Amino acid sequence: GDEILTHKSWLVPGDASSFHAECxxxxxxxxxxxxxxxxxxxxxxxxxxxGVEDKGVTREWNEEIQSIREYPTNxxxxxxxxxxxxxxxxxxxxxACKSAVIAIxxxxxxxxxxxxxxxxxxxxxxxxxxxxxxDTK
Length: 137
Description:
This protein is mainly α. About 40% of the residues lie in helices and about 5% in strands. It has helices at about 15-30, 60-70, 75-105, and strands at about 120-125, 130. Strands 1-2 form a two-stranded antiparallel sheet. A hairpin with a 2-residue loop joins strand 1 and strand 2. The protein starts with 15 loop residues before the first helix and ends in a 6-residue tail after the last strand.
C-alpha cells in the first residue's frame, strides 16, 4: 500500500565526498580506455531501433502475405476486409524497409558477409533480406 517517506530517498548515504571521488575515478579510468572498431559486431545506438519492432518476436512477412492471399472473398465484405489487410501489411512492410535502408546506409547494420567486396554485401534486418544495387552501365 501507501507509505509515508520520513527521509529524503534521493540522498546518498554515507560520506558524499568519498562517493563522488570514487565515481570520478571510475569515469576517468573509463575515458582512458581505447575503443576498437569491430566490423563483425553491430554497433548501434540503444535509443534507435531503426524500424525493428520491439515486440519480442520478429515478423514473418512472407507468411503474413500468404495468409492474406488465402483469405476468402465470398462476398463484398470479405473482399473489402482482404483489401484492408493487404493495404495495412504493404504499408507496414514499406515503412520497415525504409527504416532498414536508412540503417544500412548509415552503417548501423553489419553485412552477413563482411569479408566479401562491398558490392557483394548482403543484409538481413527485421526479417527482410537486402542487397545493394549498382548501376553497371
